[in-house]
Amino acid sequence: MTKISISVNGESKSAEVEDRTLLSHFLRENLGLTGTHIGCDTSQCGACLVHVDGLAVKSCTMFAVEADGTDVRTIEGMANADGSLSKIQAAFQEHHGLQCGFCTPGMVMSAAALLKENPDPSEEDIREYLEGNICRCTGYHNIVKAIQAAAAA
Predict the structure, then answer these.
(1) What is the residue range of 60's domain?
(2) Is 88 within 8 Å of 112 (Cβ atoms)?
(3) Closest alpha carbon to 58 in 27, 16, 87, 80
(4) pLDDT tens-digit series, residues 35-81
(5) In whole angstroms, how far apart are CA 36 and each of 76, 90, 123, 128, 149?
(6) Best CA proximity match to 38, nearest among 1, 78, 74
(7) Same domain, 66 and 93
(8) Measured distance CA(145)–CA(123) in Å, rounded
(9) What CA–CA distances, in Å, run from 114 to 15, 87, 136, 146?
(10) From CA 78, how far away is CA 87, in angstroms rounded?
(11) Does residue 60 sit in the same domain as residue 32?
(12) How far apart are the C-alpha atoms of 114 and 65, rounded to whole Å?
C-alpha cells in the first residue's frame, strides 16, 4: 500500500492504495466520483478521460500512485462555482450531444481540453480531436455541434 495525496476538483484527498490501483478505479471506488466511466479498460473508448495537471488523460491508463501530488479534474468538477452547467455541459444539453450518456463525461472532458488548446476549432479539428472517444449512439454529429456552440459562447 502506498499513501497518495491528490487535489481532485480543488479538494485535497489522501488515501492508501495498492500500487496497481488505476486512477479510474481510485476516483470511482475510493472517492465516489462515478462520473468517470469505465468502458473498456484498454484505453480505447475515452469514457474515463480526466484532466491531470491540465492535460487530458485516460484514467484507465494511469495508476493512482502516478497521480500523487497532481491536480485532477473530473466531470464532477466541470460545473460552474454556483453549481450551474459549464458552457460545454450546457451546449451538450442544448444541442443533444448525448444519447445514452455513457460516453458523455469523456466527451465533455475532451471538449474542454480541445477548447483550451484551440478556442475556435473547425469541424475537422473537433472530429480529429475526438478520435480517442467512442460514442456508440449519436454518430457524433450533435457532439460536434455542441462543441462548436461551446466554442462560440
Answers:
(1) 2-76
(2) yes
(3) 27
(4) 999 988 788 999 999 999 999 999 999 999 999 999 999 999 999 99
(5) 8, 18, 26, 22, 24
(6) 74
(7) no
(8) 8
(9) 31, 14, 21, 13
(10) 9
(11) yes
(12) 26
